[in-house]
């Protein structure tokens, strides 16, 4: 485990009488991308707002070993964030937004580089009231990066982005990660998150259900072998009789574990004169894993 | 703190309304001074000059609107999250907005007063002299005192509007309270004074303190307000501090 940049310990949060975060504890490793995953209302945005001191809380938050409280949070100097939807002043241009929140004189080259990486040159000097959802989202992302933060918190950053913009954002995140920036990212688009996140925090009903790495979670997933044979129906019967677990359907889809032996499967079929034309490996994706985990938790 | 203040100034400068307000105030003064120049008996220049050629009342309306929007726009646009997700405490965030309003109202007063002086010299210079006897001292001294009292009285309303904007997060409520408060005083002052005459302790209510700018111009007001000029000044400052303090107490625990 690398150094921890952020530690959240026993954080509780209430909206009126309703408790929305229940003893939330987790840590973020320095220089890694952490995905924050959970259903709507699970508490993802509230966790992010709590770190940013946007909502009062009870508990402990430490950034690089230094404590942070609701009223005293110098840590926010090193954190960039996009929460819920981009905060945009309609009467200002995108460039003016970046200049407004940029600190110090060294920022102008950084601003130009961000604009270039997010391909915003075409509209950055137009009034933001005319921006589309995707343009606003990109501006919000750029604002999160403008002060060279050590930690970037992004809440649903892919919202409203087209595939090209999605890729630009992904490239920016990976580029920044390679420079040592840490990330906490929530997204409903788990396939996108799967391409980025190295660590995962899974939340449900205000609690952290699990903190793990993407590798560990996916390795614990279900794996399948899909066969294309000369007689799929007969092949299914043979394999079931041999004790394999097959997923119901027309295809020969065998659920396996890490210790399976493909040679044994093929021998079973060839000995019964079934020709095997193709063999494919399939892994359950992040979405399947998360759904299974949440179902187990409930 | 300085960074927050600079951010507030930057936002205000980028609003188109900031330019329009200056233009409207200048045009109003030019219009009123021109009318006074053409019909000096109907609209005496000296009377018009005391209110900076009718721009003073517009300064009240514009200041109240800007005060309300400087807070409520952050909630309306969702930008309050970006503003608060900086290293600064919430107290500093709110104080930077007060300082912006202080700067902006000072700008409006100085700008309209300088313009009034310029128009006096150019259009109505022959109608009165700045060094002639005013209602207490020399006319220019009384004019400055009246403007100062007007500024303090406006700030009582501004602090109330800032408090309401912080509490309710909507401009319309905050601006309405400020403007209605301004007019209610003028409409109900007779009733207020008769109640104060009957129950003297009611002279300490904030509405009575909004008479400061009237009393500076017309000394006989003190018979009705039952307060001296200094008591009104100190009371106004006290109410400004109270309203701003309540605003901080609300804002420091607000979830956004």
Could you explain how this protein is built, in words?
The complex is a heterodimer of chains A (about 300) and B (about 260). Chain A is α/β, with parallel strands linked by helices and about 300 residues long. Chain A has two domains: about 5-220, Rossmann fold; about 220-295, Alpha-Beta Plaits (2-Layer Sandwich), CATH 3.30.70. Chain A contains ten helices and 14 strands. Chain A has a six-stranded mixed beta sheet with strand order 6-7-8-3-9-10, sandwiched between helices. In chain A, strands 2-1-4-5 form a four-stranded antiparallel beta sheet, covered by helices on one side. Chain A starts with a strand and ends with a helix. The mean pLDDT of chain A is about 90. With about 260 residues, chain B is mainly alpha-helical. Chain B has twelve helices and no strands. The radius of gyration of chain B is 20 Å and the shape is globular. The model of chain B has no long low-confidence stretch (mean pLDDT about 90). The chains are: A alpha/beta (about 300), B mainly alpha (about 260). Chain A: Pfam families: ABC_tran. Chain A: Belongs to the ABC transporter superfamily. Chain A: Keywords: ATP-binding, Nucleotide-binding, Transport. Chain A: This is ATP-binding cassette domain-containing protein. Chain A: GO terms for molecular function: ATP binding.
Rg of chain A, alpha carbons: 24 Å
First-last Cα distance of chain B: 21 Å
Return the CATH topology of the largest domain in chain A: Rossmann fold
Taken as a percent bin, the fraction of beta residues of chain A is 25-35%
Helix/strand/pairing class of chain B, anyone?
mainly alpha
In total, the number of strands of chain B is: 0
Coarse structural class of chain A: alpha/beta
The largest β sheet of chain B comes out as:
none
Tally of structural domains of chain A: 2
| Beta-strand share of residues of chain B | under 5%
Helix content of chain A: 25-40%
Strand numbers in spatial order across the main sheet of chain A: 6-7-8-3-9-10
